[in-house]
Each structure stands twice: as C-alpha cells, then as structure tokens.
Amino acid sequence: MSIMSSITRLMTATLLLTGLAGLVTAAHATDKMSKASVVIQVSENNPAIWNLALNNAKNIQQSLGKENVNVEIVAYGPGINMLKFDSEVAPRLKEANTSGVAVLACGNTMKAQKLTEKDLDGNVKVVPAGVIEIINKQRDGWSYIKP
Questions:
Q1: Could you tell me the residue ranges of all domains in the chain?
Q2: DSSP per residue over the chain, as a string?
Q3: Which one of 18, 53, 107, 145 is least enclosed by Cβ atoms within 10 Å?
Q4: Which tens digits make up the pLDDT trace of 107-144?
C-alpha cells in the first residue's frame, strides 16, 4: 500500500468520523429543542387574570402533551397575593402543580410585602426575583405569555 493510499484512507476516515459526530450533535440538539417551554407572567391581583393564566397552562399541556412542555407561572408585584394559601385560586394552584406546572413567587416582592413562604400556598416555590426569572427563561429560548 502506498503512502498516498494510506493518507487518502486516513482522510476519508477522519471526514466520516467528523460527519458522524456532527449528526450525533444535531440529533441531541433537536431532541433538546423538541420540548416546548413557556413562562407565564402574572403581576395582577385579579382572580380572573389568574384563572386565565392557569387555563393557559392547562390548555398548553393538553394541546402539546404534559411530557412535551415545560410550563412556569411567575408572579410578582400585586400578582403575588393570589399565591397566598387562602386565595380564591389556591385549589387551582394545587391542580396546576400536580400536573407539572411550576408556580413561582418573586422573592423581592415577598420582602417588600413582608411575606414569608408560610404565607404562600404550599405548592409555590420562591425565586430571588420574578422579573429576572422571566428574563433568564426568555434568554434560554422559552416562550413568554402575559394574560
């Protein structure tokens, strides 16, 4: 076998392996991107708006399939009042959480309103800043909804 033949085979093998690596990377990226992600902002102390947001989350999951979508509802400002354990929408928060919707409260708003996690429905998680949570999710490619 000549040196030129060996070099040609080596180059062919290298190109083949590079192509396969690219296909594996593309397949992994497609798989990651196939799951939709939606962040819903609620900043109003209004049960009708909250019910609309919760309906949006439920409808998204029903349309796309729970296993195919990440859904977060982020509350800040006056919207945080509907996250209290005794709010009108508390039963629906539990339903949303059970179906895989993350309901998040703004830590900055909680501090400003002198609220603790004990004041909130047990299904609610706290993030340091609601607006920053939304910004980061959008930066990561999440869709944004404000009912």
A1: 1-34, 35-145
A2: --HHHHHHHHHHHHHHHHHHHHHHHHHHHHHHHTSEEEEEEE----HHHHHHHHHHHHHHHHHH-GGGEEEEEEE-GGGGGGGBTTSTTHHHHHHHHHTT-EEEEEHHHHHHTT--GGGB-TTEEEES-HHHHHHHHHHTT-EEE--
A3: 18
A4: 999 999 999 999 999 989 999 999 999 999 999 999 99
